[in-house]
Design goal:
The relative contact order is 0.18. The strands form 3 sheets. This protein has a 7-stranded mixed β-sheet, with helices on both faces. A 4-stranded antiparallel β-sheet has the order 9-10-13-12. It has 396 residues and is an alpha/beta fold. α4 packs parallel to α10. α6 links the parallel β3 and β4. It is 38% helix and 15% strand.
């Protein structure tokens, strides 16, 4: 019998999606499931984006340019400049989601067997992208006791070898919600320049910052022009996950020309989705002000109620819409499955994402879960109450 590739066998399952079959069984058993497991915003997509597609005047749904339409890239560049990120349209390549941008970045900066250092826990799909690219992730662990702040730079220094090609961060972070301060970005800038590495920053949650904190992009930092690569997406910013439009941004001409070859190989990003994404750039600031206020209230609601559960530790997010909670259990995979298969309160249960899948270090994060606070505040309160009762029963 033919066999699948070693790479295929090594591809990790999504910790976010692998529990879906158990959720479907719960639905068939007429249970209500509160989804805390996936970062699908419930915020309405801006009308201007939807209307742009419905009112299109295309006669032929043709390929777009491999790097994305010139009009869209010009408008993205304007958006960045408004955010103090000095880039031009020719320094942007539009991709099919931030996921493709990450794959293109890894393919452009690293060969098979090369290494990328990533603070963990990190976005689970980094494991998959690295496996697909033949790249080895070298983790540096951040801790819930430190609210998942940037580990000491000395810890990065210890891990740099001749095979190290880049440091990759997510800012604000998925799954932690941690927002790197300007000083932390500057420390990373110093080390990548010292060792001639790339600094890749996944900045898809740029708008989502709380408590008066501001996002500081790596390309705001002078001197990172040759080292910096931004990964971005419309998915969360405009609640347009299904559009599958992202981009890669760099002032390094060699990187852009290399990424362009990957972009040409897949032909072009989706045309209709670019039309919607271009229109979304007209979204007024009031939209974001309301969204940020709503998410900040949801975060406060979630964290305050989680902290009342005995034995639970919580990392308090400064951005994005996720948090990591450490539970008084041994294995969150087994707990998450049990929640869907064997537990309910009056026909209601919750679905969470086991956090071990957000680490590459073995046996780390086994008692942690990631929670996405993309539900209304009333639902979050209900979900945490269900979690509290579930933990009591599970421990008994």
């Amino acid at each position: 019998m033919p066999s699948v590739s070693i790479k295929g066998r090594q591809m990790p399952e999504s910790p976010i999606r692998k529990l879906v079959p158990y959720a479907e069984k719960a639905y068939k058993a007429n249970k209500t499931v509160y989804h805390l497991n996936i970062g699908q915003p419930d915020i309405k997509t801006p009308d201007v984006a939807m209307e742009a597609v419905s009112k299109h005047s295309l006669d032929i749904l043709a390929y777009s340019r491999s790097e994305g339409s010139e009009e869209y890239r010009e408008k993205i560049a304007q958006y960045y400049r408004k955010n103090n990120i000095p880039v031009d349209a020719n320094e942007i390549i539009v991709t099919t989601g931030g996921s493709e941008a990450l794959l293109f970045a890894m393919g452009s900066i690293a060969d098979a067997g090369d290494e990328i250092i990533i603070p963990e826990p990190f976005y689970a799909n980094y494991n998959g992208f690295a496996t697909a690219s033949g790249v080895n992730i070298v983790p540096v662990i951040s801790k819930i006791e430190d609210n998942f702040a940037l580990p000491p730079i000395s810890e990065f220094e210890k891990l740099i070898t001749l095979k190290t090609k880049a440091i990759l961060i997510c800012n604000p972070g998925n799954p932690t919600g941690y927002l790197y301060a300007k000083e932390e970005i500057q420390k990373l800038a110093t080390i990548v320049k010292k060792h001639d590495l790339f600094l890749v920053a996944d900045e898809v949650y740029r708008e989502f910052t709380y408590d008066g904190y501001k996002h500081y992009s790596i390309l705001e930092e002078a001197g990172l022009e040759e080292n910096g690569i931004i990964i971005d997406s419309v998915s969360k910013r405009y609640s347009m996950c299904g559009a599958r439009i992202g981009c890669l941004v760099s002032k390094n001409k060699q990187i852009i020309s290399t990424v362009m070859k990957f972009a040409q190989a897949r032909l072009s990003p989706p045309t209709f989705a670019q039309i919607a994404s271009e229109a979304a750039l007209q979204t007024p600031q009031s939209y974001f002000d309301e969204v940020i206020e709503e998410y900040e209230e949801r975060r406060n609601t979630l964290v305050n109620h989680l902290m009342k559960i005995p034995g639970v530790k919580v990392g308090v997010p400064k951005g994005a819409f996720y948090c990591i909670a450490e539970l008084p259990i041994k294995n969150s995979d087994a707990f998450a499955q049990w929640l869907l298969e064997d537990f309910d309160i009056d026909g209601e249960t919750i679905m969470v994402a086991p956090a071990a899948g957000f680490y590459s270090s073995p046996d780390v994060g086994l008692n942690q879960i990631r929670i996405a606070y993309v539900l209304k505040k009333e639902s979050l309160v209900k979900a945490v109450e269900i979690l509290k009762m579930a933990l009591q029963q599970y421990q008994d």
